[in-house]
Amino acid sequence: DQQVKQNSPSLSVQEGRISILNCDYTNSMFDYFLWYKKYPAEGPTFLISISSIKDKNEDGRFTVFLNKSAKHLSLHIVPSQPGDSAVYFCAASDTGTASKLTFGTGTRLQVTL
Amino acid sequence: ETGVTQSPTHLIKTRGQQVTLRCSSQSGHNTVSWYQQALGQGPQFIFQYYREEENGRGNFPPRFSGLQFPNYSSELNVNALELDDSALYLCASSLAKGDIQYFGAGTRLSVL
After folding, report:
1. Is the Cβ pair A98, B55 closer than 8 Å?
2. Among all residues of chain A, which has the CA nearest to that of B43?
3. Stretch B69-75: mean pLDDT, rounded?
4. Inter-residue contact A43 to B4 (CB < 8 Å)
5. Do A93 and A63 form a contact (C-beta atoms < 8 A)?
6. Kind of pairing between the strands at B102-103 and A56-59
7. CA–CA separation, A19 vs A44, rounded Å?
8. How confident is the model over A9-57, as pLDDT tens digits?
9. How far is B27 from chain A (nearest CA, A)?
10. For residue range B76-99, what is the model confidence (pLDDT) as tens digits?
11. Half-sphere exposure of A89 toward its Cβ, with a 13 Å CA cutoff?
């Protein structure tokens, strides 16, 4: 049972444009959400997070939006840069258990010149 | 400040053998989590240790076991290796339970 889903395995965006990566979840106990970026031969790098008490969190070029009623979150990258090319993982946790992260299967973003 | 380090980076074992993977937490972090990432999948939670005690376990059989030491470094042990255990094993540390988890580069295990 895939509790966190990233339905787009890949996305290609031109440099300077907006990248939008999507994530859906099914477990209503999830109340904390994170995005990680992964380059080949490296571990996932924390990018940005959002608590369920908020619907938006911004950090520079990265913004995460959370729609609790739709159980959907998205990561916006504006403007996209070639160095953003990586695999992006959405992850969720239930802070009551304070332990595991449940990850999606990832979206490979390619930013082209 | 050093990040999370894992050793070895690559490992080849045969079916039925046992393996130990090691992880050094980021400085000041008392919580360590282990994940298994199969090809084309997202990381799957194996277990977490907080101050040397297991604090949560995922859907993995008992042949996956772990330890956390007083310096908060950690080991993942896998007994009776199976072909499906071939994966990238990731360790993540956090300042405390529930805090953001920071990952190492992983150990790539191949079981032949």
Report:
1. yes
2. A103
3. 93
4. yes
5. no
6. unpaired
7. 19
8. 999 999 999 999 999 999 999 999 999 999 988 999 999 999 999 999 9
9. 17
10. 999 999 999 999 999 999 998 788
11. 22
- CA A90, A96, A97, A98 torsion-angle sign: positive
Query: Is-contact A33 A66, C-beta < 8 A?
Result: yes
Q: Which of B4, B92, B100 lies closest to A49 in CB terms? A: B100
Residues of A in contact with B101 (CB under 8 A): 46, 101
Per-residue tokens: B93: 């540390």
Q: What is the pLDDT of residue A96?
A: 72
- Segment holding B106, helix H or strand E: none
Q: What is the DSSP string of A51-79?
A: ETT-SEEEETTEEEEEETTTTEEEEEESS
Query: A1 with A58: CB under 8 angstroms?
Result: no
Q: CB distance A103–B42 less than 8 Å?
A: yes
Q: What residues are paired with B49 via a beta bridge?
A: B32, B54
Q: How far is B104 from chain A (nearest CA, A)?
A: 5
